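Notes from hallway chat w/ T.B., transcribed later so I don't forget. T.B. wanted the structure written out for a chain they're using in a teaching module, and asked if we could keep both sequence and structure tokens in one place. Agreed to drop them here.
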Amino acid sequence: MCEMDAEAFERLVVEELDQLPDDMVEGLDNVIFVVEDRPEDGSLDLLGLYDGWSLPERDTYGMAELPDRIVIFRESHLAAVDAIDELRAEVHTTLVHEIAHFYGIDDDRLHELGWA
């Protein structure tokens, strides 16, 4: 298990987000990134969550919609790794995974691509 306070973890998430390819993040529309300690159920099994309407579903998307959220769970990530370099890699993978859900890519396809 790795240890890191909330502020340092948020900085790490921003750094990893900045490392993603421009074409991956430039298409994100009305999406915010949020860091929370744990999922609502208190478990450490879930690393991230996409909460919103995927791009293919946005035909019913109206004006003034609240932003979709990509949530990264700090304590889940810290429990899953033993070192900072592993943490960076896991956060990177989680960001790609959750952004893929925005684009409408499901878990089966992510497994095929090696991102799940």
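Follow-up for T.B.: Residues 84-102 form the longest helix (19 residues). Might be a good example for the class.
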